[in-house]
Amino acid sequence: MLPGVMEVAPRMELNATLALVPVLNVTLACKELVSGVWPWGWLALIFGSTCVYAGAALAACVRMFGRESVLFRT
């Protein structure tokens, strides 16, 4: 929740560093899109970083559920 709320802070602009913060990047991109600005480079960076985070989370889940102790609680 905190990164999503930080978006309304004054002078919070989309840049390369903030484009890599998981929730804040999407909220800042939505703010830009609603205002009529379409920063294609930042949107591509946001999409790429979100895909990397999702892939890492999926890999962690596959590794975790690959163990029988997690599935059967033994």
Q: What descriptive keywords fit this protein?
A:
66% helix
Describe this structure in words.
By secondary structure, this protein is mainly alpha-helical. The chain has one domain (2-72). 66% of the residues lie in helices and 0% in strands. It contains four helices and no strands. Helix 2 packs antiparallel against helix 3 (40-65). The longest helix has 26 residues, at 40-65. The chain is elongated, with a radius of gyration of 17 Å.
Give the helices and strands as they follow along the chain.
Answer: HHHH
Which whole number gives the mean pLDDT?
88
**Which secondary-structure class do the elements indicate?**
mainly alpha
Q: Tell me the fraction of residues in β-strands, as a range.
A: under 5%
Number-wise, the strands total 0
- Number of alpha- plus pi-helical segments: 4
Structural domain count: 1
Rounded to the nearest angstrom, the radius of gyration is: 17 Å
Q: Low-confidence stretches at least 5 residues in length (pLDDT < 50)? A: none
Could you give a short account of the major beta sheet?
none
Q: Which percent range fits the helix content?
A: 55-70%
What is the rounded distance between the termini? 35 Å
The 3D shape can be described as: elongated
Structure at a glance:
The protein has 74 residues and is mainly alpha-helical. The protein is built from 4 helices and no strands.
Topology:
Layout: H1 2-6, H2 22-34, H3 40-65, H4 68-72
